[in-house]
Amino acid sequence: MTGSSATNERIDIRVFGGPSALIEFGGLKFLTDPAFDEPGDYPIGADRFLTKTAPSTIDPADLGPIDVVLLSHDEHPDNLDHSGRALLAGVPLVLTTTGGAGRLGGTARGLAPWETVDLPRPDGGTVTVTATPAQHGPEGCEPITGEVVGFVLTASDLPTIYVSGDNASLAVVEKIAARIGPVDTAVLFAGAARTPLFDGALLTLDSAQAAEAAAILGARRIVPVHFDSWGHFTEGRNALVDAFTAAGLIHRLELS
């Protein structure tokens, strides 16, 4: 039985607002992009800032021990803020971009796209984490928005989970689907993020694209994250419901 076909096992995923979700997979606790600071303005560069509009639904102290942080990128405060950086110090392994690992140090390990790491499970099995490409804006955005990575979690007896990170490209999603095949659960960073960069072009998937990504991936279950709590998101819960309803996929959408 492969990870993509083992769909009977229920994988617990808890979403806390913004990009932060706790995934319990193979006896290990994975946390995506930790961002738990209070609302306020957060500088990005010399003359720009992002505005957080709502608090997280959990205090990071209440998360309990985290085995692995899956950090899509470290350069933007809506993906890694002050409390998130403090949390990293107590986590045995932080998987992120190659550049991010160099900046963060500590337990951070950089993964290039399609690089894998095998993690021992408490039951004696193995979880494989595969890094996937992501594009945080229009084609050629990397010199400005920076390097981003997504992740795929697999195990021989568990359904496959894809975590997109901040990705705005359906072409990237198509490459991932062609490489890894269908996934059971897709944790999609949505929200149609826009800033003055690139004349307001999308920095993450909009709701219609998220629904299309779900179809491309063949995902049975979609858990959207990173579509609320920040002012630069232009589409929220209602837009996701409308888009997945229009696509005939509302039964696959899981909103907390």
Whole-angstrom Rg: 17 Å
Write the CATH architecture name: 4-Layer Sandwich
Strand order of the largest sheet: 1-2-3-6-7-8
The overall number of domains is: 1
Q: What proportion strand?
A: 25-35%
CATH class: Alpha Beta
Separate helix tally: 6
Question: What is the share of helical residues?
Answer: 10-25%
> How would you name the oligomeric state of the polypeptide chains in this document?
single chain
Q: What are the SSEs and their pairings?
A:
Blueprint lengths: L11 E4 L5 E5 L2 E5 L7 E4 L5 E4 L15 E3 L11 H7 L4 E4 L1 H7 L3 E3 L5 E5 L5 E8 L8 H4 L3 E7 L2 E6 L6 H11 L4 E5 L17 H11 L3 E5 L11 H10 L10
Care to describe what's here?
- There is one protein chain.
- The chain is of the alpha/beta class.
- It has one domain: 4-Layer Sandwich (Metallo-beta-lactamase, Chain A).
- 20% of the residues lie in helices and 27% in strands.
- The chain is built from 6 helices and 14 strands.
- The chain has helices spanning 82-88, 98-104, 142-145, 170-180, 207-217, 237-246; strands at 12-15, 21-25, 28-32, 40-43, 49-52, 68-70, 93-96, 108-110, 116-120, 126-133, 149-155, 158-163, 185-189, 221-225.
- The strands form 3 sheets. It has a 6-stranded mixed β-sheet with strand order 1-2-3-6-7-8. The protein has a 6-stranded mixed β-sheet with strand order 9-10-11-12-13-14, with helices on one face.
- A hairpin with a 2-residue loop joins strand 11 (149-155) and strand 12.
- Helix 4 (170-180) packs parallel to helix 5 and helix 5 (207-217) crosses helix 6 (237-246).
- The two termini are 30 Å apart.
